[in-house]
Amino acid sequence: MSKRKLSRQQRWRIEKIQAERARRAEKRGEQDADRLAAGEYGPERPGRVTAHFGRTLDVAPDKGDEPVRCHLRANLEGLVTGDRVVWRAGQDGSGVVVARGERDNVLERPDARGQLKPVAANIDQLLIVFAVEPAPHANLIDRYLVAAEATGIAPVLVLNKVDLLPSRGGELRELLGRYEALGYPVVTTTTAREGGLDALYRRLAGRTSVFVGQSGVGKSSLIDRLLPDENLRIGALSEDSRKGRHTTTTARLYAMACGGELIDSPGIREFGLTHLEERQVAEGFIEFRAHLGHCRFRDCRHRHEPGCALLAAVEHGDIHPDRFASYRRIVDSLEES
Ligand SMILES: Nc1nc2c(ncn2[C@@H]2O[C@H](COP(=O)(O)OP(=O)(O)OP(=O)(O)O)[C@@H](O)[C@H]2O)c(=O)[nH]1
Ligand SMILES: [Zn+2]
After folding, report:
1. Which of 126, 180, 187, 192 lies in the 20 to 30 Å Cα band around 112?
2. Which ranges are annotated Basic and acidic residues under compositional bias (predicted)?
């Protein structure tokens, strides 16, 4: 409908609504200005959420700074650990978060009802930890990689307990070589030897990381070494839980001595294959991407279809048969669930 066709009454109503909006915005601005003038809140500053409990957040003004306990301005929702925010300091040592910055990415986990909920944001890398013992199945590594690819967060493979590796490296080294050839960074670690984490420190420096992986691979052992004063922090956590907060599911952002930041919670470590579409699984195998969309049938499921570009790529040695078998297993497991 063109403007000209609006009746006088409609025009009047629209003008009235707009005037009301402008008046309210002005009033809000005045209130903020008043408070600022009265010294109630300091100027706007950047910060990053290091923990959150409902509408209360901890915000670190800068890397490694002691966080400031903040509340959320009424119109803000859904902030998570790792979010970049704009906040203002109050006089009593607390603060108010007034805006959320753009997110590079967000890590989601299913809640009790199976619905995906964001738990952390702005993560540079997902460190997928596996170990010489319990030995990883290639399919398990692929599952993690597919899930990581679906989040858009760069995965890094961390092989821990290399002190248990036979001197020649054996099959596991060969397997890792295959992932390196696909372009995935691989880092080896051991907590059993001096200097066993040096390569990991270099990987962590200057980035925000999350550790994930199967039980028993050594995540806690690694994180204990990265956060030697974590006991203090665990103390802080139990203090929060006495107040009845759900701290066990709260992700926290820690500054590490090696210069990087770590986001961790028990829930995050269990990150795995969530609800994915068959398409996403295929796209999660990075070497498949060049071939996707080239099958004869648009709805090809890459099983026995004639003219399937993926099957042809396996035939020509462009896709490793183990990776293709792994893809099949993951797709089949989606159907079962
Ligand atoms: N030999 C050897 N053992 C290690 C190494 N790192 C960890 N371990 C041992 O592996 C076992 C499991 O380590 P955790 O750190 O508890 O593993 P986790 O991944 O945190 O396991 P969950 O808490 O079950 O998720 C422990 O007995 C550790 O002492 C390592 O580099 N070499
Ligand atoms: Zn196909």
Report:
1. 126
2. 20-47
